[in-house]
Structures are given as C-alpha cells and as structure tokens.
Write a structure and sequence with these properties.
single chain, alpha/beta, five-stranded mixed beta sheet, 5 strands, 49% helix, globular
Amino acid sequence: MSRKSRALPPSPFRRFNSSPEVIRLVVMMYVRFPLSLRNVEGLLAERGIDICHETVRFWWNRLGPMFAGDIRLQRVSRMRGFRHWRSHLDEMYVKLNGEMVYLWRAVDHESEALESFVTRSRDKAAALTFMRRALKRHGSPETITTDGLRSYGAAMDELGNRARQEVGRWANNRVENSHLPFRRRERAMLRFRRMTSLQKFAWVHANAHNHFNLERHLLDRQTYKDRRSAAPPHWPSGR
C-alpha cells in the first residue's frame, strides 16, 4: 500500500525578492550583535548588499520570531529529559516612553535564557503569570533561585513549590549577569517604544543569544573556534 506523500509547507521566503541566505544573514546580524538598524545597513553596504534599514526592521519583525521559535523548540525538547537542573529568576526595569516597565527573565544553571515576560508591575499576579509560563514550557527545575522580592514567595505558595525556592545574597548573580547582553542591545536600539516590540525582541534576542553562547571562558582556543564556525550554519533556515 503506497503511502501518500505529504505536501511540504510553503517557504516563508517565497514572497521576498532577496535570497534566503541574505535574509538569514541580516536577521542574524541584527539580533546577535549590538547593532542598530542603520549599522546593519552600513555593514551590508560594505559587502555589496544594498538594502534600507526599514527592510532590516521588516525582516526581523517578520522572520525573527520564527527563527527564535525553532531554536527554543530544540532546546525545550532536550531539557524535558533533564531532571537535575536549576532555574534562576529575576526582574529588570526597562524604560518605555518614560514609563517604567519590568522584564522578567528566567535562566538555567548554564546562564541560558529560558523565558522573558514584560509587565507593568511586579506584584504577585505578574510573578505568578511569569512562573506559570516558564514551568509550562520548560518543566519543573530542582531548585528555583530568586532575590528577596516577596512576589516570588507569594506566587510559589500558590503554585505549591515554595520548598524549592532558594534566596541568598549572591545566589542570583547568574541571572543578574545575564541581563548585560540585553542592556547592550537596549542602548544600541535607543530604548523601546511599545510593549509588544519589547516583548518580541526580548524573546527573539534571548533565543539567539542561547544559540551563539559558546561559553568562551570554559573552552580552549581550538574548541571555541570550532564551535564558533559551527554556530552560523546551524542558524534556523525557516524551512
């Protein structure tokens, strides 16, 4: 009995005039390095690729979440098999048109970002929503390290995992240091103007950072060079 062949999904690049290789390069440059839209436009012009900075904006808005979703799907599937991993939670303030909003971030024991979530407050309801999203996507860690914010404890009491919480003076340095790459991107982009764009870029940037995080301080030079060369070819193709 012959098995019916399934139709392949249409390529996301089918309506673009530029080649998929150029589009993937542009999106990778913008989300990986602390560059502005016009910086990417200038660097591509040096390579003989003539595109407008608004094209860079359109491409990353359109295809960046798709690439980030592919990276996250691969990582989540691997983490489901782990049992002894730790989670670190923290919130950082971000100015949005002069208003203070909060970006909640979760990283694992290897400093790789797990979840990013933007709220206008940092009360129990915000912490509860953030933690439910993280636990649903990545499973339950062995321990959850936080700072002294009471919202975490109140949310964990409702979730029933207060016994897993760890609070210490320097225990949460891992997640606090992981804010630095995002702060560099924030300065290059001259801050954000909308909640939706902040949420989208925080999520895309976190997954791109995970993909290119080679832990250089733990590797010898040759191993680092091999992994650095292997990272761009494994950047999602979007097909």
